Amino acid sequence: MKKLSLLLLLSATLISCNNNSMSTNTNDIDRKVDSLLSLMTLEEKVGQMNQYNGFWNVTGPVPEEGDAAKKYDDLRNGRVGSMLNVRGVEEVRKVQQIAVEESRLGIPLIIGFDVIHGYETMSPIPLAEAASWNMDLIKRSAEVAAREAAASGINWTFAPMVDISRDARWGRVMEGAGEDPYLGSLVAAARVKGFQGEDLSSPLTIAACAKHFAAYGFSESGKDYNTVDVGTATLYNTVFPPFKAAKEAGVRTFMNAFNELNGIPATGNAFLQREVLKGEWEFDGFVVSDWGSVNEMIIHGFARDGRDAALKAATAGSDMDMESYHYVNHLAKLVEDGEVEESLIDDAVRRILRVKFELGLFEDPYKYCDAQREKDIIGSEEHHQAVLEMAKHSIVLLKNEGGLLPLKKEGQSLAIIGPLADDKTSPLGSWRIAAEDGTAVSVLEGMTTYEGNTITHRQGVKLTEGSPSFTMETKINTTDRTGIPEAVAAARGKDVVIMVLGEHGFQSGEGRSRTALDLPGLQQELLEAVYEVNKNIVLVLMNGRPLAINWADEHVPAIVEAWHLGSESGNAIAQVLYGDHNPNGKLPMTFPRDVGQVPLYYNHKNTGRPVIPAPDLVFWSHYIDQTNQPLYPFGHGLSYTDFTYEELTVSKDTLKGDEVLNVSLKLTNTGEVTGTETAQLYLRDMVASRTRPVKELKKFTQVTLAPGESQTLTFEIKEEDLAFYTGNNTWQAESGDFTLFAGGSSNTVLEATFYFEK
Ligand code: BGC
User: Fold this and answer.
1) Phi, psi of 286 (to 5 degrees)
2) CATH of 394-597, one of 3.40.50.1700, 3.40.50.1000, 3.30.457.10, 3.30.420.10
3) Top mutation candidate among 55, 57, 59 for ligand 1, by most atoms within 8 Å of CB
4) Whose CA is nearest to atom 6 of ligand 1?
5) What is the mean predicted confidence (pLDDT) over 298-326?
6) Bond prior to 160 in cis (omega within 30° of 0)
7) Does 69 or 189 have the greater pLDDT score?
8) Domain definitions of the chain by residue range
9) 365: Cα separation from own chain's centroid
10) Helices (H), strands (E): how many in the chain?
């Protein structure tokens, strides 16, 4: 208790922190941080930069000295600033108590956890949420996740992952917002605001973490942890914007990355962390390494040993070492030997303490440890409603021919077939560490809540041999076909067959890169066998990445992209299939026809040979065995109604300096039911000092229209919307011609032009 009183004394001299008057509080917090820092020994300072795992779920090897006894000793000796993967009020209280009541200064721990898309009540995977293009729902989903995590003792999430990726082979695309920097920036900001709320010191909000800084999503060949080599222009134009948006939304921490970037591992990369993040962007929170990534710099061939790795990572601006143990083992000695300036350590510790003060941990280190709150909040009905709403809006109707959807509510015979139809675990998706297996509503359960039709269910084939695991490779079933005949028999003569196929919940995510983008295992065979006897198929896809489903697109009349939608999955899918929710999701990532087209993205460059000439000409940018076109473009998504786009007009021909250009179009619901459309506005800078993409998303808006209703939509374009990283290596707009494109996907239908004069 002696230690606690030291800090209470410190706090008492300074007024409490809340967000009501930000600047006073920033100064107050800085003063508190400085007072505390002045009391700390070098060892204690380094301790704040050390983060230990709590023996929960690991995504990498634990260093040999990672035994519990040592960790507890280190907690007592002020050699630990943070722990991850400790959860539940009781467990968190245990470690917090040691840090606060048994260490000399009693500095509370910040407790981190991968709350990626929900804590126990699971939201859709982030890629699915991005398909909603609905920032209010995305923010609300993060808020729900934060409330549950905070109620369980956690005060820091390693989310949002804001890595742009154009490569569906990379398993971690499920964790991000897709391929577009503009959409990705909006999602990044919405998620940060959802997690952190208006007041970081509230016991129901948690600190967010923008990761992985930077360019992890550009791993060569989509293979996880692989080399990244991208130029500065791509960094500034494509990779950085969502990170910058997260920073501007107030994100309190960043995580660096496993990958090397142009030869320098991100963890030891001073350009990224010191020059850009803490320099240009003036980020005053702290940077945590990725799991063991300080150590991995040795394996990369960038650091000689642990001491060298600690030196390089700390010098480059990595403030906290997650599970490498090199800071705690080497940093103090490096300072004593004059190789690292103590001021550099002070800077890192200041950043970490600042966030701890902002969270209010010094006022009450147990503020997240209320057992009653934990009971009341986690899994509440209100949270289930929020994730259900998010899930419905995340669904994308890819194809709907012949009016198969929506289903009639009565008098139809349905066969529900596929290995994922009754799966109550896969819909939870990857990164669902606090959700119990088997807690999602399956498609079968969701469909059964509608009682007017008859349902026959068959699995057809099993997707895996045994249960999928988070840490171990899962074997896909490629041999057991015994269930196919009875699935075919069940499908015969039914009014509609709903086939639920795709990837199991751990088939995407970290370490889950694929070289094929097809339906895994025997699912394609099952689909074709069923099609032989019944062509009225609605294919419901569950997956964590774009899939190349050409055969299905050619043959199956209706295709619904249902991702991994979280706890309420089956209810959301049933409501969409029955038309109680008219789907309005739009793809945040291009779906290729063939894995050979990847990386495939809408905002590509024109090249010097882009035009599709006569079919027998060879020398242009193309493949000889596949079209350049995607299967489904970025932004694509249908509705049960139809929308027409007309009359794209600009308010003036020339936009000057800081004027505003109003861009209008008329949107009409020409179908028979009310529907919501996401109208998209793209732009091309025709000639620039550095070549620009053929199209870039600049604005979008969502409107709900009744049948026959029209609305004029207006978008504002300003100089800042035209800015990019120019040939002079500066962020600015250049004078010249611009073309605008509008439509319901990146395959736009309207065009207009204007001139920009600086
Ligand atoms: C992942 C991070 C994650 C960390 C802690 C790493 O393997 O790359 O995104 O936050 O583990 O679980």
Assistant:
1) -120, 165
2) 3.40.50.1700
3) 59
4) 291
5) 98
6) yes
7) 189
8) 2-40+115-352, 394-597, 643-757
9) 30
10) 24, 28
Please state the atom number of ligand 1 nearest to the C-alpha of residue 175: 9
pLDDT at residue 6 in the model: 53
CATH number of 2-40+115-352: 3.20.20.300
User: 59 CB less than 6 Å from ligand 1?
Assistant: yes
pLDDT of residue 3 exceeding 60: no
Q: CB of 158 closer than 6 A to ligand 1?
A: yes
Mean of the per-residue pLDDT values for the chain? 95
pLDDT digits (tens, 9 = 90+) for 28-65: 999 999 999 999 999 999 999 999 998 544 444 444 45
Task: Output the residue whose Cα is nearest ligand 1's atom 4.
Answer: 291
Q: Which of 255, 291, 470 to mutate to test the pocket of ligand 1 (most atoms within 8 A of CB)?
A: 291
Report the pLDDT value the prediction gives residue 14, as an integer from 0 to 100: 46
pLDDT-derived band at 615 (thresholds 50, 70, 90) equals confident
Say yes or no: CB of residue 510 within 6 Å of ligand 1. yes
Q: Which of 467, 464, 554, 455 is nearest to 502 (CA)?
A: 464
Residue 580 is predicted with a pLDDT of 98
- What are the CA-CA distances from residue 28 to residues 39, 198, 354, 360 (Å)? 17, 19, 10, 13
Are 193 and 200 a contacting pair, CB within 8 Å? Answer: no
How far is residue 243's CA from residue 238's CA, in Å, rounded to a whole number?
Answer: 10
CATH topology identical between 2-40+115-352 and 394-597: no
Q: What type of residue is 350?
A: R
Residues designated catalytic: 290
Work out the average pLDDT over 709-715.
Answer: 98
What spacing in Å lies between the alpha carbon of 323 and ligand 1's midpoint? Answer: 11
Task: Evaluate: CB of 57 within 6 angstroms of ligand 1.
Answer: no
- CB distance 543 to 111 below 8 Å: no
Reported as a pLDDT band with limits 50, 70 and 90, residue 491 is very high
DSSP 408: P
The protein residue with its alpha carbon nearest to ligand 1, atom 11, reads 291
Question: Which superfamily does CATH assign the domain made up of 643-757 to?
Answer: Immunoglobulins (2.60.40.10)
- Cα–Cα distance, 419 to 464 (Å, whole number): 9
User: Whole-angstrom Cα distance, residue 183 to residue 585?
Assistant: 13
Closest Cα partner for 3 from 108, 153, 151?
108
